[in-house]
Amino acid sequence: GEVLSLEDEDLIEEEEVVITLTNNGYIKRLANSEFRAQRRGGRGVQGMGVHDEDFVRTLVSCSTHDTLLFFTNAGKVYRAKGYEIPEYGRAAKGIPVINLLGIDSNERIQTIISVSGQPEEGSYLFFTTKLGVVKRTSVTAFANIRSNGLIAIGLKENDELVNVLSTKGDDVMIIGTHKG
Q1: From residue 144, how far is each of 77, 140, 141, 158 by CA, in Å?
Q2: Who contacts 128 (Cβ-Cβ below 8 Å, separation ≥6)?
Q3: Closest Cα to residue 138, out of 149, 159, 152, 117?
Q4: How sure is the predictor about 128, in pLDDT bands with cuts at 50, 70 and 90?
Q5: DSSP category for residue 43
Q6: In angstroms, how far apart are the furthest CA atoms of the chain?
Q7: Nearest by Cα to 85 from 104, 63, 107
Q8: Can you spell out the DSSP letters for 64-91?
Q9: What's the whole-model pTM score?
């Protein structure tokens, strides 16, 4: 008979999850139920054991079947499926994102964008760099990314990718500088 690969998505339960990435580069997946367990009048949910001054910098709500696009300060993009992010409890800090994606040690993840299903025409990503360069690219350009990543935006010397936003192409973008 037909051999099913272990990565056959149909075998993986589709569930809503939360992906967190800390400032020090630790990533994990949490079940939504782990995140919601807060009583009224509570002080918020303790998101992770914060023993070493680390904190959650990026939090993405997605499905285990969604594709996650990871954009680095070097202008590269890497991808993983929601279910490929290891699941940990609230108190655990997760694994170094470097081990998961094979990014360079001097690269830092700036933004994580979740894409469900096939990327559709009319959905765009809006890039902003440190030196003020902006660019809009169709999400479909990121449908096939090899494991060693893809250059999402070419950068001049001393420039870095600061942020990437999802847009329908007719949204109003407001960009502020650090000098206000």
Answers
A1: 11, 9, 8, 28
A2: 134, 161, 162, 163, 164, 165, 175
A3: 152
A4: very high
A5: -
A6: 64
A7: 63
A8: TTSEEEEEETTSEEEEEEGGGSPB--TT
A9: 0.85
